[in-house]
Specification:
It is built from 17 helices and 13 strands. The chain has 369 residues and is α/β, with parallel strands linked by helices. It folds into two domains: 176 residues, Glycogen Phosphorylase B (Rossmann fold), CATH 3.40.50.2000; 183 residues, Glycogen Phosphorylase B (Rossmann fold). The strands form two sheets. It has a seven-stranded parallel β-sheet, with helices on both faces. Helix 1 packs across helix 17 and helix 4 runs parallel beside helix 5. It is globular and about 60 Å long. The two termini are 13 Å apart.
């Protein structure tokens, strides 16, 4: 069968690659064309547009790049029409993917959405249209099934979180050599250039206060080495790794992490973390008025309580970050609390079984009738 998959971010590339791997176990003749990245390509998919050319962060940045976004939408529709897939699989990336879903439904394509947009956080009215345009919704967060059923009378399928098996597999099959003789602090500043420029300088500055530690930056696969090299040059105890975030997290004593999937990955590696968010002032002010959730990190949202500290916008200062990092490095009680909550979090996310395999089976059975 022919599958057209659209993932617009690094996390979507990861989950898309594992989905493709499982689809090929079920459907050996699968012909897969996609928008994604290197990981999806490594699983045998034909990548027509790389996610690094698609990622625009925040409201202001999206407005500035509207022309490019509309050109991408037009190209995508034309490419789908030429390929004529049996199913369109949309992975998160809602601003783009929901527009494609609306158009594709009108063209008569079957549509599966894998990894729900975070409509429970904001833009809830999207659900009305989503029910019209999406034939099958696969969700990865445990509370989403009840949210859609109880609030919107929509039966969706919870498959578990794909990161659980990804990270378990990494731990079982990798025993990497140590990055440094010093204990390690991981810095995960995000994948988009705009967010890295906002957060990484603050993260780097506190390295001066912890000379006994080696600070290691996880470079985003879509960014050039020189971009990081210039920022890291003034700091003697800072280095970086590329395309190896799990290698870094498997050795880290603590981590400073931008909001998003990385907060969950860090938790599943059992690494105490401080969550950092800082965007443009315009984007932040708009988001603050629209968001309906208590937390910004997936760890706290899924557990529905404070597990890890979140430093947001003006709270993300060198002094605040230094204080919180010191706490998760030295306060044994705080460290134990975090790790206990991490264990409960993993149990919640494992309830659906192997998420990628379950999602692949659901998609194949759906299109096979």
């Amino acid at each position: 069968m022919k599958y057209y998959i659209i993932a617009g971010e690094a996390s979507g590339d990861l989950h898309g690659s594992n989905l493709i791997k499982e689809l090929k176990k079920i459907d050996a003749s699968a012909n897969i064309r996609c928008w994604g990245g290197d990981l999806m390509q490594q699983q045998g998919a034909t990548v027509v547009k790389h996610y690094r050319d698609l990622a625009f962060m925040g409201f202001a940045e999206v407005i500035m790049n509207l022309r490019t976004i509309f050109k991408n939408l037009t190209f995508c529709k034309e490419d789908i029409q030429q390929f004529k897939p049996d199913v369109l699989v949309l992975i998160d990336y809602p601003g783009f993917n929901l527009r494609i879903a609306e158009w594709a439904k009108q063209q008569g394509y079957k549509i599966v959405f894998y990894i729900s947009p975070q409509v429970w956080a904001w833009k809830e009215n999207r659900v009305k249209k989503m029910k019209l345009y999406i034939d099958k919704m696969l969700v990865i967060l445990p509370f989403e099934k009840d949210y859609y059923k109880n609030k919107w009378n929509w039966e969706v399928e919870y498959v578990g979180h794909p990161l659980v098996e990804v990270i378990d597999d990494y731990k079982q099959n990798n025993n990497p050599q140590s990055i440094s003789d010093k204990p390690i602090i991981a810095l995960l500043p995000g994948s988009r250039k705009q967010e890295i420029l906002k957060k990484l300088p603050v993260m780097l500055e506190i390295s001066k206060s912890f000379p006994q530690y080696q600070f290691v930056v996880a470079q985003a696969p879509g960014q050039e080495d020189i971009f990081y090299k210039e920022m890291l040059r003034p700091y003697s105890n800072v280095s970086s790794v590329k395309n190896d975030t799990y290698y870094l997290l498997s050795q880290a004593n603590a981590a400073l992490v931008t909001s998003g999937t990385a907060t969950l990955e860090t938790a599943l590696f059992g690494v105490p973390e401080v969550v950092c968010y800082k965007g443009s002032n315009i984007s932040y002010q708009i988001a603050k008025r629209l968001l309906t959730i208590k937390y910004i990190s997936l760890v706290n949202l899924i557990m529905d309580k404070f597990v890890v500290k979140e430093l947001i916008q003006n709270e993300l200062t060198v002094d605040n970050l230094k204080q919180e990092l010191s706490l998760i490095l030295t306060d044994e009680k705080r460290i134990a609390e975090i790790k206990n909550d991490y264990a409960s979090l993993k149990k919640l996310l494992s309830e659906g079984g192997n998420a990628s395999a379950k999602a692949a089976t659901g998609i194949f059975n759906f299109i096979a009738g």
